[in-house]
Amino acid sequence: MSNDTKSPLLSWLDERYQVSPLIEFLRHKEVPIGAHSMAWYFLGGATLFFFMVQIVTGVLLLMYYQPGEATSWESLRYIMTKVPFGWLVRSFHCWSAHLMIICLVAHMFSTMLLKAYRPPRELTWVTGYVLFAVALGFGFSGYLLPWNELSYFATVVGTDSVKSVPVVGNWLLEVMRGGPDVTINTLYRFFALHVIILPLACFALVGIHLLFIQRQGMAAPVGECHAPRGMKFFPSFAVRDLLLWLACLFLLVALSTVAPYGPNIPGMEWELGSKANPLAPAYPGIKPEWYFLWIYQLLKEFPPHLLGLEGPQLCLLLVSVLMGAWAAVPWMDRQARRNQPSPGFSDFGFAAILFISYLTLKAWDIGAVGNDVDAPASVASVARTCAWWELGLGGAIIAIRYTVYEHRWFLFSGAALLHAGLHGLAGIGYLAAGLVAMLPVVAGVVMIYRAQSRGEETAGA
């Protein structure tokens, strides 16, 4: 841009901060358009919007909220009953937190299925993965702040699982709680984590994540070095993103006014209720937030002791292995690294969806008989009902993938459906059914690996 065409303000800024290169970058920046829907590109922006709502509403709540044994619950009740529109601000804060997690999960799975993590974007994937972990930390730490019965006993149950970590479990438990039990010291620690430590970490990670995206651009479709055509980021894509933010705002306003205390399902309810009383009996039907339900249910599926170890220890080990594998996908997916389709890793992503969805459905006790959800008949009924739901969902996903996207790899997703069928319909134990379902996966992966190795040797010869 020549100096003659610059406005006085832009010239003044350019002399001091050299903003012309940034303007030129935005003018030429494009969003790749390929065979996949551009809707996936907007999920990151929607997540950022709900995060900004979290910050604004959190600051407004912080003006009245006072952490303390005699002030936390009371100040929140004051916000909801005395402060003008205080109930609406809190509803905004709660709904935007859940919508942010939903958008973040959808964004992560879309990145996985579109192979947007392939070189040179491995660290973009890693920073997004860490942002997801920080978002879960926000949810966990903020859950205790109302200091009501539900949040108190849910925190007791949630933090108690930390004891299962080998060697340092008890030490970690006391670090989290500020002592052996959940007390006001736990509230102070969670408050500091929620309003200081995690926001600082999140701002830094969001800045790094956005910097990586701006430097490298959005990933083009697999198999193409460059997108066949592109859309100008500014103003075309930016205006669409702003319109999406406006739609998200309308959705947030509608949900916050129609259901100010949540949809009243386990893991998505935030009515204030009664003040926490550590001496009272445990709150009935304690369940964590919906995005922790699959881990909660998986802990229940493990016996107290297995293979000489405590069941919760093995469960946390399994979760750690799965999470580690998910973080390492950019380095494990060799075909995507060569800019080639990798149907096996796409199927791995769909299998993860089915694995988590089945455990979440079971945690909701869908199909329970009577009031005692832990009775053998009720447990069997829940497993059977959830298995049918899972088979219907998985069958629909496979049919769409086969007919619309012409996918032919269903090894992992098929194993997830076999697992649900063996457990829910045949009555085999959850872990035993999982081992049986893994056998064809192991055999299939070994056969495919050997076939690929022979193909590479033949090509090399």
Structure write-up:
The protein is mostly helical and 461 residues long. It has a domain at 342-461. It has 18 helices and four strands. The protein has helices at 8-17, 20-28, 43-62, 72-81, 86-113, 122-142, 149-160, 169-177, 184-216, 233-258, 293-301, 311-327, 329-332, 334-337, 343-363, 376-403, 411-424, 430-460, and strands spanning 30-33, 229-232, 305-306, 309-310. Helix 3 packs antiparallel against helix 5. The protein is globular and about 75 Å long. The N and C termini lie far apart (56 Å).
Q: Which stretches of 5+ consecutive residues score pLDDT under 50?
A: none
Whole-angstrom Rg: 25 Å
The portion of residues forming beta strands comes to under 5%
Counting H and I runs of at least 4 residues, what is the number of helices? Answer: 18
What is the approximate shape?
globular
Strand order of the largest sheet: 1-2
Number of strands: 4
Task: List key phrases describing it.
461 residues; mainly alpha; two-stranded antiparallel sheet; 18 helices; 4 strands; 66% helix
Topology record:
Elements: H1 8-17, H2 20-28, E1 30-33, H3 43-62, H4 72-81, H5 86-113, H6 122-142, H7 149-160, H8 169-177, H9 184-216, E2 229-232, H10 233-258, H11 293-301, E3 305-306, E4 309-310, H12 311-327, H13 329-332, H14 334-337, H15 343-363, H16 376-403, H17 411-424, H18 430-460
In short:
This protein is mainly alpha-helical and 461 residues long.
